[in-house]
Design goal:
By secondary structure, this protein is α/β, with parallel strands linked by helices. The chain contains 14 helices and 17 strands.
Length: 539
Protein backbone atom coordinates (compact mmCIF):
# COMPACT_ATOMS: atom_id res chain seq x y z
CA UNK A 1 0.00 0.00 0.00
CA UNK A 2 1.32 3.42 -0.96
CA UNK A 3 1.78 5.97 1.82
CA UNK A 4 1.42 9.63 0.91
CA UNK A 5 4.27 11.99 1.70
CA UNK A 6 3.56 14.56 4.41
CA UNK A 7 5.69 17.59 5.22
CA UNK A 8 5.52 20.33 7.79
CA UNK A 9 5.55 24.05 7.11
CA UNK A 10 7.56 26.78 8.80
CA UNK A 11 4.91 27.10 11.52
CA UNK A 12 5.29 23.45 12.44
CA UNK A 13 1.70 22.67 11.43
CA UNK A 14 1.05 19.15 10.24
CA UNK A 15 -1.46 18.80 7.37
CA UNK A 16 -4.06 16.02 7.30
CA UNK A 17 -4.44 14.27 10.64
CA UNK A 18 -2.81 17.19 12.45
CA UNK A 19 -5.56 19.47 11.16
CA UNK A 20 -8.20 16.93 12.13
CA UNK A 21 -6.76 16.71 15.64
CA UNK A 22 -6.82 20.50 15.94
CA UNK A 23 -10.42 20.67 14.71
CA UNK A 24 -11.62 18.14 17.28
CA UNK A 25 -9.72 19.89 20.09
CA UNK A 26 -11.22 23.20 19.03
CA UNK A 27 -14.67 21.61 18.91
CA UNK A 28 -14.55 20.22 22.48
CA UNK A 29 -13.13 23.52 23.72
CA UNK A 30 -15.87 25.52 22.02
CA UNK A 31 -18.59 23.25 23.39
CA UNK A 32 -17.21 23.58 26.94
CA UNK A 33 -17.68 27.35 26.88
CA UNK A 34 -14.19 27.83 28.38
CA UNK A 35 -12.09 30.73 27.15
CA UNK A 36 -8.41 30.17 26.38
CA UNK A 37 -7.61 32.01 29.61
CA UNK A 38 -9.91 29.78 31.70
CA UNK A 39 -8.64 26.62 30.01
CA UNK A 40 -5.07 27.78 30.61
CA UNK A 41 -5.70 27.97 34.36
CA UNK A 42 -7.29 24.50 34.47
CA UNK A 43 -4.61 22.77 32.40
CA UNK A 44 -1.61 24.88 33.46
CA UNK A 45 -0.72 25.44 29.82
CA UNK A 46 -0.13 28.89 28.36
CA UNK A 47 -2.94 30.44 26.29
CA UNK A 48 -0.63 30.81 23.28
CA UNK A 49 0.27 27.11 23.40
CA UNK A 50 -3.39 26.11 23.66
CA UNK A 51 -4.19 28.34 20.68
CA UNK A 52 -1.46 26.65 18.63
CA UNK A 53 -2.87 23.21 19.48
CA UNK A 54 -6.44 24.21 18.57
CA UNK A 55 -5.46 25.88 15.29
CA UNK A 56 -3.14 23.12 14.09
CA UNK A 57 0.06 25.15 14.22
CA UNK A 58 1.60 22.66 16.66
CA UNK A 59 0.89 19.02 17.50
CA UNK A 60 0.89 18.37 21.29
CA UNK A 61 4.10 16.58 22.35
CA UNK A 62 2.35 13.68 24.13
CA UNK A 63 -1.11 12.22 24.52
CA UNK A 64 -1.21 13.16 28.20
CA UNK A 65 -1.34 16.80 27.10
CA UNK A 66 -4.22 16.05 24.72
CA UNK A 67 -6.13 14.12 27.40
CA UNK A 68 -5.57 16.89 29.97
CA UNK A 69 -7.11 19.50 27.67
CA UNK A 70 -9.95 17.24 26.55
CA UNK A 71 -10.89 16.19 30.09
CA UNK A 72 -10.89 19.81 31.24
CA UNK A 73 -13.45 20.39 28.48
CA UNK A 74 -15.54 17.35 29.59
CA UNK A 75 -14.82 15.35 26.43
CA UNK A 76 -16.67 12.06 26.07
CA UNK A 77 -14.97 8.65 26.06
CA UNK A 78 -15.55 8.36 22.30
CA UNK A 79 -13.93 11.76 21.78
CA UNK A 80 -10.95 10.69 23.89
CA UNK A 81 -10.68 7.59 21.70
CA UNK A 82 -10.77 9.63 18.50
CA UNK A 83 -8.30 12.21 19.87
CA UNK A 84 -5.88 9.41 20.70
CA UNK A 85 -6.15 8.00 17.18
CA UNK A 86 -5.65 11.37 15.53
CA UNK A 87 -2.75 12.30 17.82
CA UNK A 88 -0.93 9.01 17.13
CA UNK A 89 -1.36 9.46 13.38
CA UNK A 90 -0.29 13.11 13.49
CA UNK A 91 2.85 12.23 15.45
CA UNK A 92 3.68 9.30 13.15
CA UNK A 93 3.90 11.58 10.10
CA UNK A 94 5.53 14.56 11.80
CA UNK A 95 9.13 15.14 10.72
CA UNK A 96 10.39 15.97 14.22
CA UNK A 97 11.45 13.26 16.65
CA UNK A 98 8.35 12.58 18.76
CA UNK A 99 10.28 11.44 21.80
CA UNK A 100 10.23 14.53 24.01
CA UNK A 101 10.46 15.18 27.75
CA UNK A 102 7.15 14.47 29.45
CA UNK A 103 5.28 17.56 30.61
CA UNK A 104 3.38 17.66 33.90
CA UNK A 105 -0.01 15.87 33.70
CA UNK A 106 -2.54 17.92 35.61
CA UNK A 107 -6.27 17.20 35.58
CA UNK A 108 -9.32 18.98 36.88
CA UNK A 109 -11.36 17.76 39.80
CA UNK A 110 -13.94 15.33 38.40
CA UNK A 111 -15.67 12.28 39.90
CA UNK A 112 -13.35 9.35 40.42
CA UNK A 113 -15.71 7.00 38.60
CA UNK A 114 -15.58 9.08 35.44
CA UNK A 115 -11.81 9.41 35.75
CA UNK A 116 -11.37 5.66 36.12
CA UNK A 117 -13.55 4.92 33.10
CA UNK A 118 -11.82 7.49 30.89
CA UNK A 119 -8.36 6.45 31.98
CA UNK A 120 -9.11 2.76 31.47
CA UNK A 121 -10.17 3.64 27.94
CA UNK A 122 -6.97 5.64 27.39
CA UNK A 123 -4.65 2.95 28.78
CA UNK A 124 -6.30 0.16 26.78
CA UNK A 125 -6.20 2.25 23.63
CA UNK A 126 -2.54 3.11 24.13
CA UNK A 127 -1.80 -0.62 24.23
CA UNK A 128 -4.05 -1.44 21.28
CA UNK A 129 -2.97 1.38 19.01
CA UNK A 130 0.71 0.77 19.78
CA UNK A 131 0.36 -2.68 18.24
CA UNK A 132 -1.82 -1.70 15.31
CA UNK A 133 -0.27 -1.74 11.83
CA UNK A 134 0.19 1.76 10.40
CA UNK A 135 2.15 1.02 7.24
CA UNK A 136 5.76 0.10 6.51
CA UNK A 137 7.88 0.03 9.66
CA UNK A 138 10.64 2.03 7.99
CA UNK A 139 8.32 5.02 7.52
CA UNK A 140 6.96 5.24 11.09
CA UNK A 141 8.69 7.27 13.76
CA UNK A 142 9.45 5.39 16.96
CA UNK A 143 7.06 5.84 19.89
CA UNK A 144 8.51 5.27 23.38
CA UNK A 145 6.57 4.94 26.64
CA UNK A 146 7.89 4.23 30.11
CA UNK A 147 9.56 5.87 33.10
CA UNK A 148 10.60 9.48 32.70
CA UNK A 149 13.99 8.43 34.01
CA UNK A 150 15.43 5.57 36.01
CA UNK A 151 18.86 5.45 37.61
CA UNK A 152 20.42 4.51 40.90
CA UNK A 153 22.09 7.28 42.87
CA UNK A 154 22.11 8.36 46.53
CA UNK A 155 19.67 11.03 47.66
CA UNK A 156 21.89 13.97 48.64
CA UNK A 157 20.68 15.54 51.93
CA UNK A 158 21.95 18.96 50.79
CA UNK A 159 19.21 19.01 48.13
CA UNK A 160 16.80 20.07 50.87
CA UNK A 161 18.02 23.66 51.09
CA UNK A 162 16.43 26.85 52.43
CA UNK A 163 17.30 30.51 51.98
CA UNK A 164 17.93 31.90 55.45
CA UNK A 165 16.52 35.42 55.32
CA UNK A 166 17.44 36.45 58.85
CA UNK A 167 20.44 38.25 60.34
CA UNK A 168 19.86 36.84 63.84
CA UNK A 169 22.06 33.79 63.57
CA UNK A 170 19.16 31.59 64.72
CA UNK A 171 19.01 28.39 62.69
CA UNK A 172 15.96 26.36 61.59
CA UNK A 173 14.62 24.14 64.37
CA UNK A 174 13.44 21.51 61.90
CA UNK A 175 15.57 19.35 59.61
CA UNK A 176 17.10 21.04 56.54
CA UNK A 177 20.06 20.05 54.37
CA UNK A 178 21.77 23.33 53.41
CA UNK A 179 21.54 27.10 53.83
CA UNK A 180 21.71 30.09 51.52
CA UNK A 181 22.21 33.57 53.00
CA UNK A 182 20.14 36.26 51.28
CA UNK A 183 17.89 39.07 52.52
CA UNK A 184 19.92 38.67 55.68
CA UNK A 185 21.69 42.07 55.66
CA UNK A 186 24.74 40.48 54.06
CA UNK A 187 24.75 42.24 50.70
CA UNK A 188 27.95 43.86 49.53
CA UNK A 189 26.64 47.33 50.46
CA UNK A 190 26.00 46.17 54.05
CA UNK A 191 29.36 44.46 54.52
CA UNK A 192 31.45 47.23 52.92
CA UNK A 193 29.64 50.53 53.56
CA UNK A 194 32.78 52.50 52.63
CA UNK A 195 35.71 51.68 50.37
CA UNK A 196 38.09 50.77 53.20
CA UNK A 197 35.56 49.87 55.89
CA UNK A 198 34.21 46.33 56.45
CA UNK A 199 31.52 45.14 58.86
CA UNK A 200 31.70 41.36 59.17
CA UNK A 201 29.56 41.06 62.31
CA UNK A 202 26.36 39.67 60.75
CA UNK A 203 28.02 37.33 58.27
CA UNK A 204 30.38 36.05 61.00
CA UNK A 205 27.36 35.27 63.16
CA UNK A 206 25.54 33.45 60.37
CA UNK A 207 28.56 31.42 59.27
CA UNK A 208 29.43 30.41 62.84
CA UNK A 209 25.83 29.36 63.55
CA UNK A 210 25.64 27.29 60.36
CA UNK A 211 28.89 25.52 61.15
CA UNK A 212 27.73 24.84 64.72
CA UNK A 213 24.55 23.29 63.26
CA UNK A 214 26.59 21.25 60.76
CA UNK A 215 24.87 22.85 57.75
CA UNK A 216 26.61 23.63 54.44
CA UNK A 217 26.18 27.36 53.76
CA UNK A 218 26.32 29.55 50.66
CA UNK A 219 27.04 33.28 50.53
CA UNK A 220 25.38 35.36 47.79
CA UNK A 221 27.06 38.37 46.20
CA UNK A 222 24.95 41.31 45.10
CA UNK A 223 23.98 44.88 45.91
CA UNK A 224 26.87 47.13 44.80
CA UNK A 225 27.63 49.85 47.39
CA UNK A 226 26.64 53.38 46.37
CA UNK A 227 30.23 54.56 46.76
CA UNK A 228 31.35 52.05 44.09
CA UNK A 229 28.70 53.02 41.50
CA UNK A 230 27.28 56.43 42.57
CA UNK A 231 25.50 57.24 39.30
CA UNK A 232 24.02 53.80 38.70
CA UNK A 233 20.33 52.89 39.26
CA UNK A 234 19.33 51.80 42.73
CA UNK A 235 18.61 48.11 43.31
CA UNK A 236 15.33 46.74 44.69
CA UNK A 237 16.53 47.00 48.29
CA UNK A 238 16.18 49.54 51.10
CA UNK A 239 19.90 49.85 51.74
CA UNK A 240 20.74 52.26 48.91
CA UNK A 241 22.71 49.60 47.01
CA UNK A 242 23.07 49.78 43.24
CA UNK A 243 22.03 47.33 40.52
CA UNK A 244 25.02 47.96 38.24
CA UNK A 245 28.60 46.69 38.39
CA UNK A 246 31.08 48.94 40.19
CA UNK A 247 32.61 51.68 38.07
CA UNK A 248 36.01 50.13 38.75
CA UNK A 249 36.09 46.32 38.69
CA UNK A 250 39.14 46.45 40.91
CA UNK A 251 36.72 47.24 43.77
CA UNK A 252 34.86 44.03 42.95
CA UNK A 253 38.10 42.05 42.92
CA UNK A 254 39.12 43.34 46.35
CA UNK A 255 35.75 42.60 47.93
CA UNK A 256 35.50 39.07 46.52
CA UNK A 257 39.06 38.30 47.62
CA UNK A 258 38.41 39.65 51.12
CA UNK A 259 35.29 37.47 51.55
CA UNK A 260 36.95 34.32 50.20
CA UNK A 261 40.03 34.78 52.38
CA UNK A 262 38.05 35.43 55.57
CA UNK A 263 35.73 32.42 55.16
CA UNK A 264 38.20 29.93 53.69
CA UNK A 265 37.03 26.46 54.77
CA UNK A 266 33.98 27.89 56.56
CA UNK A 267 31.63 28.48 53.62
CA UNK A 268 30.78 25.73 51.15
CA UNK A 269 29.60 27.75 48.16
CA UNK A 270 29.39 31.24 46.65
CA UNK A 271 26.63 32.51 44.35
CA UNK A 272 28.20 35.27 42.28
CA UNK A 273 25.08 37.45 41.91
CA UNK A 274 21.35 37.20 42.59
CA UNK A 275 18.98 37.64 39.61
CA UNK A 276 21.66 38.38 37.04
CA UNK A 277 19.10 38.89 34.26
CA UNK A 278 16.63 41.09 36.17
CA UNK A 279 17.20 44.83 35.89
CA UNK A 280 15.93 45.38 39.42
CA UNK A 281 18.98 43.49 40.71
CA UNK A 282 21.53 43.73 37.90
CA UNK A 283 21.34 46.51 35.30
CA UNK A 284 24.68 46.00 33.58
CA UNK A 285 25.52 44.26 30.33
CA UNK A 286 25.81 40.52 29.83
CA UNK A 287 29.46 40.99 28.85
CA UNK A 288 30.20 42.79 32.11
CA UNK A 289 28.52 40.04 34.15
CA UNK A 290 30.60 37.38 32.40
CA UNK A 291 33.76 39.34 33.18
CA UNK A 292 32.74 39.79 36.83
CA UNK A 293 32.07 36.05 36.99
CA UNK A 294 35.46 35.19 35.53
CA UNK A 295 37.34 37.46 37.92
CA UNK A 296 35.38 36.39 40.99
CA UNK A 297 35.82 32.70 40.25
CA UNK A 298 39.59 33.10 39.91
CA UNK A 299 39.79 34.99 43.20
CA UNK A 300 37.63 32.52 45.11
CA UNK A 301 39.38 29.41 43.81
CA UNK A 302 42.76 30.96 44.58
CA UNK A 303 41.73 31.37 48.20
CA UNK A 304 39.64 28.21 48.59
CA UNK A 305 40.04 25.65 45.75
CA UNK A 306 37.47 23.18 47.13
CA UNK A 307 34.56 25.59 47.44
CA UNK A 308 31.66 25.48 44.94
CA UNK A 309 31.27 28.53 42.68
CA UNK A 310 27.71 29.14 41.45
CA UNK A 311 27.27 31.38 38.42
CA UNK A 312 24.91 34.38 38.80
CA UNK A 313 21.40 33.06 39.25
CA UNK A 314 18.98 33.79 36.41
CA UNK A 315 15.31 34.56 36.93
CA UNK A 316 12.40 35.60 34.71
CA UNK A 317 12.85 32.33 32.85
CA UNK A 318 9.18 32.01 31.96
CA UNK A 319 9.84 34.94 29.58
CA UNK A 320 11.58 34.90 26.22
CA UNK A 321 13.96 37.74 27.14
CA UNK A 322 14.89 36.02 30.41
CA UNK A 323 15.87 32.85 28.55
CA UNK A 324 17.64 34.94 25.90
CA UNK A 325 19.88 36.52 28.56
CA UNK A 326 20.70 33.06 29.98
CA UNK A 327 21.59 31.81 26.50
CA UNK A 328 23.74 34.86 25.78
CA UNK A 329 25.59 34.42 29.08
CA UNK A 330 26.25 30.80 28.12
CA UNK A 331 27.36 31.67 24.58
CA UNK A 332 29.85 34.20 25.97
CA UNK A 333 31.43 31.42 28.04
CA UNK A 334 30.09 32.51 31.42
CA UNK A 335 29.43 28.97 32.63
CA UNK A 336 32.99 27.91 31.90
CA UNK A 337 34.03 29.82 35.02
CA UNK A 338 31.66 28.11 37.49
CA UNK A 339 30.95 24.72 38.99
CA UNK A 340 27.18 25.21 38.94
CA UNK A 341 24.57 27.38 37.20
CA UNK A 342 22.10 29.21 39.43
CA UNK A 343 18.48 29.36 38.24
CA UNK A 344 15.19 30.59 39.69
CA UNK A 345 12.86 27.64 39.19
CA UNK A 346 9.28 28.42 40.20
CA UNK A 347 5.66 28.26 39.08
CA UNK A 348 4.18 31.08 37.01
CA UNK A 349 1.91 31.81 39.98
CA UNK A 350 2.48 30.66 43.54
CA UNK A 351 -0.87 28.81 43.50
CA UNK A 352 0.07 26.75 40.41
CA UNK A 353 1.05 23.12 41.15
CA UNK A 354 4.80 22.69 41.78
CA UNK A 355 4.92 20.13 38.97
CA UNK A 356 4.46 22.92 36.43
CA UNK A 357 8.06 23.96 37.12
CA UNK A 358 9.16 20.91 35.14
CA UNK A 359 7.88 22.62 32.02
CA UNK A 360 10.13 25.56 32.84
CA UNK A 361 13.04 23.21 33.54
CA UNK A 362 12.52 21.76 30.07
CA UNK A 363 12.77 25.25 28.52
CA UNK A 364 15.94 25.93 30.50
CA UNK A 365 17.47 22.62 29.41
CA UNK A 366 16.66 23.38 25.76
CA UNK A 367 18.24 26.82 26.08
CA UNK A 368 21.44 25.42 27.53
CA UNK A 369 21.52 22.74 24.85
CA UNK A 370 21.15 25.36 22.10
CA UNK A 371 24.07 27.30 23.61
CA UNK A 372 26.25 24.19 23.89
CA UNK A 373 26.41 24.32 27.70
CA UNK A 374 25.39 21.61 30.15
CA UNK A 375 26.15 22.81 33.69
CA UNK A 376 24.85 21.34 36.91
CA UNK A 377 21.90 23.35 38.19
CA UNK A 378 20.99 24.73 41.60
CA UNK A 379 17.58 26.28 42.13
CA UNK A 380 18.38 29.29 44.32
CA UNK A 381 14.98 30.90 44.80
CA UNK A 382 11.73 32.18 43.46
CA UNK A 383 10.49 35.37 41.82
CA UNK A 384 10.02 38.84 43.23
CA UNK A 385 6.31 38.73 42.38
CA UNK A 386 5.47 35.65 44.50
CA UNK A 387 6.06 37.66 47.67
CA UNK A 388 3.07 39.82 46.69
CA UNK A 389 0.65 36.89 46.33
CA UNK A 390 -1.82 35.71 48.97
CA UNK A 391 -0.87 32.97 51.44
CA UNK A 392 -2.05 29.47 50.56
CA UNK A 393 -4.27 27.43 52.85
CA UNK A 394 -2.51 25.38 55.52
CA UNK A 395 -3.12 22.07 53.74
CA UNK A 396 -1.92 23.48 50.45
CA UNK A 397 1.27 24.81 52.06
CA UNK A 398 1.96 21.30 53.34
CA UNK A 399 1.35 19.74 49.94
CA UNK A 400 3.32 22.33 47.99
CA UNK A 401 6.32 22.48 50.34
CA UNK A 402 6.81 18.71 50.19
CA UNK A 403 6.25 18.55 46.44
CA UNK A 404 8.74 21.40 45.94
CA UNK A 405 11.49 18.97 46.93
CA UNK A 406 9.96 15.93 45.19
CA UNK A 407 9.84 17.90 41.96
CA UNK A 408 13.50 18.79 42.54
CA UNK A 409 14.31 15.08 42.75
CA UNK A 410 12.24 14.51 39.61
CA UNK A 411 14.31 17.23 37.91
CA UNK A 412 17.69 15.60 38.55
CA UNK A 413 17.40 14.06 35.08
CA UNK A 414 17.86 17.62 33.77
CA UNK A 415 20.90 18.31 35.95
CA UNK A 416 19.11 19.81 38.97
CA UNK A 417 21.22 18.95 42.03
CA UNK A 418 19.98 21.26 44.78
CA UNK A 419 16.97 23.43 45.60
CA UNK A 420 16.72 26.23 48.14
CA UNK A 421 13.19 26.94 49.34
CA UNK A 422 12.49 30.67 49.64
CA UNK A 423 12.55 31.37 52.44
CA UNK A 424 13.26 30.42 56.02
CA UNK A 425 12.86 33.01 58.78
CA UNK A 426 10.41 35.44 57.19
CA UNK A 427 6.62 35.52 57.11
CA UNK A 428 4.11 37.11 54.78
CA UNK A 429 4.85 34.73 51.90
CA UNK A 430 2.46 32.33 50.16
CA UNK A 431 4.15 29.45 52.02
CA UNK A 432 5.88 29.90 55.38
CA UNK A 433 8.06 27.21 56.93
CA UNK A 434 9.10 29.03 60.09
CA UNK A 435 9.53 32.59 61.27
CA UNK A 436 12.41 33.52 63.54
CA UNK A 437 11.39 32.92 67.15
CA UNK A 438 8.37 30.82 66.20
CA UNK A 439 7.79 27.07 65.95
CA UNK A 440 8.01 25.20 62.64
CA UNK A 441 4.76 25.23 60.69
CA UNK A 442 3.04 22.00 59.71
CA UNK A 443 4.54 22.49 56.25
CA UNK A 444 8.04 22.54 57.77
CA UNK A 445 7.34 19.40 59.79
CA UNK A 446 6.09 17.69 56.62
CA UNK A 447 9.34 18.60 54.84
CA UNK A 448 11.21 17.13 57.80
CA UNK A 449 9.18 13.91 57.53
CA UNK A 450 10.01 13.67 53.82
CA UNK A 451 13.70 13.86 54.69
CA UNK A 452 13.27 11.06 57.23
CA UNK A 453 11.66 8.91 54.53
CA UNK A 454 14.57 9.46 52.16
CA UNK A 455 17.52 9.38 54.57
CA UNK A 456 20.14 6.95 53.28
CA UNK A 457 18.10 5.93 50.20
CA UNK A 458 19.01 5.70 46.55
CA UNK A 459 16.75 6.86 43.75
CA UNK A 460 15.33 4.27 41.37
CA UNK A 461 13.39 6.61 39.10
CA UNK A 462 10.50 9.03 38.77
CA UNK A 463 7.43 8.41 36.63
CA UNK A 464 3.94 9.73 36.02
CA UNK A 465 0.66 8.96 34.34
CA UNK A 466 -0.55 6.28 31.92
CA UNK A 467 2.93 5.71 30.51
CA UNK A 468 3.59 3.51 33.56
CA UNK A 469 -0.04 2.46 34.16
CA UNK A 470 -0.89 5.18 36.66
CA UNK A 471 -3.91 7.47 36.26
CA UNK A 472 -3.44 10.83 34.59
CA UNK A 473 -2.12 13.32 37.13
CA UNK A 474 -0.56 10.70 39.44
CA UNK A 475 3.17 11.06 40.06
CA UNK A 476 5.58 8.55 41.57
CA UNK A 477 9.20 8.54 42.68
CA UNK A 478 10.80 5.26 43.75
CA UNK A 479 13.73 4.75 46.11
CA UNK A 480 15.71 1.85 47.57
CA UNK A 481 16.30 1.84 51.33
CA UNK A 482 19.45 0.53 52.99
CA UNK A 483 17.67 -2.69 53.96
CA UNK A 484 16.62 -3.38 50.35
CA UNK A 485 13.00 -2.35 50.72
CA UNK A 486 11.47 -0.26 47.93
CA UNK A 487 9.84 3.05 48.83
CA UNK A 488 7.21 4.49 46.47
CA UNK A 489 6.11 8.10 47.02
CA UNK A 490 2.88 8.88 45.19
CA UNK A 491 0.82 12.05 44.82
CA UNK A 492 -1.41 13.89 42.37
CA UNK A 493 -0.86 17.26 40.76
CA UNK A 494 -4.58 18.01 41.08
CA UNK A 495 -7.66 16.24 42.39
CA UNK A 496 -7.55 12.63 43.56
CA UNK A 497 -7.24 9.15 42.10
CA UNK A 498 -7.18 5.48 43.04
CA UNK A 499 -4.40 2.97 42.52
CA UNK A 500 -3.75 -0.54 43.85
CA UNK A 501 -1.01 -1.44 46.30
CA UNK A 502 1.72 -3.30 44.39
CA UNK A 503 3.19 -6.69 45.22
CA UNK A 504 5.08 -6.97 48.52
CA UNK A 505 3.36 -3.88 49.93
CA UNK A 506 3.75 -3.75 53.71
CA UNK A 507 2.99 -0.26 54.98
CA UNK A 508 1.46 3.09 54.04
CA UNK A 509 3.11 6.13 55.64
CA UNK A 510 1.53 9.57 55.70
CA UNK A 511 3.34 12.89 55.73
CA UNK A 512 2.07 13.67 59.26
CA UNK A 513 4.20 10.82 60.60
CA UNK A 514 1.43 8.25 61.02
CA UNK A 515 1.29 4.90 59.24
CA UNK A 516 -0.81 1.76 58.82
CA UNK A 517 -0.32 -1.76 57.41
CA UNK A 518 -0.96 -2.14 53.67
CA UNK A 519 -1.80 -5.34 51.82
CA UNK A 520 -0.91 -6.05 48.16
CA UNK A 521 -3.86 -5.31 45.88
CA UNK A 522 -5.52 -2.99 48.40
CA UNK A 523 -7.06 0.19 46.97
CA UNK A 524 -4.87 3.23 47.66
CA UNK A 525 -6.39 6.71 47.55
CA UNK A 526 -3.87 9.17 46.11
CA UNK A 527 -4.29 12.90 46.71
CA UNK A 528 -2.23 16.08 46.42
CA UNK A 529 -0.57 15.20 49.73
CA UNK A 530 2.39 12.85 49.05
CA UNK A 531 2.33 9.48 50.79
CA UNK A 532 4.76 6.57 50.98
CA UNK A 533 4.18 2.90 50.12
CA UNK A 534 6.75 0.53 51.63
CA UNK A 535 7.45 -2.69 49.72
CA UNK A 536 9.39 -5.63 51.11
CA UNK A 537 12.70 -6.61 49.46
CA UNK A 538 12.48 -8.48 46.18
CA UNK A 539 13.84 -8.72 42.66
Amino acid sequence: MLRRSVTTGESGAVPGTGDQLARLLAEVKSRSGLSYSELSKQTHTSTSTLHRYCTGKTVPPDYQTVARIAMACSATDSELTELLRLWRQARSVENADPVVPKQPSVRRRIPLGSVALSLLTVVLLLSAVAGAPTGPVSEANQQVYGPSWARQEPVDPTMFGVTASSSSGVMPSFRVGSLRFWDSRTRWASIQPQRDVYDWSILDRLVDSARHAGLPAMFVFGGTPAWAAPTSPKAAYNDGSRAAPPDDLADWDRFVSAVAARYRGRLDAYELWAYGNDGRYYAGSTEALVEMTRRASLAIKAADPDVTVVCPSMGRLWTADGLAFLRRFAELGGYQHCDVAGIKLHQRRAADPPETTLELLGHIDETFHAAGAHPRLWNTGTTYEHALEKPLTEQRTIDYAVRFYLVAIYGTNKGLNRSYFYNWGGGGLPITLQVVGGPPTRAALAVEELQRWLAGTRTRGCEQGPSINLPVGVWQCAFTAKDGRVLLIQWTSDGAAQTFAPNRSEELRLIDGTSRPLQPGEIVHVTQTPQLIVQGPGD
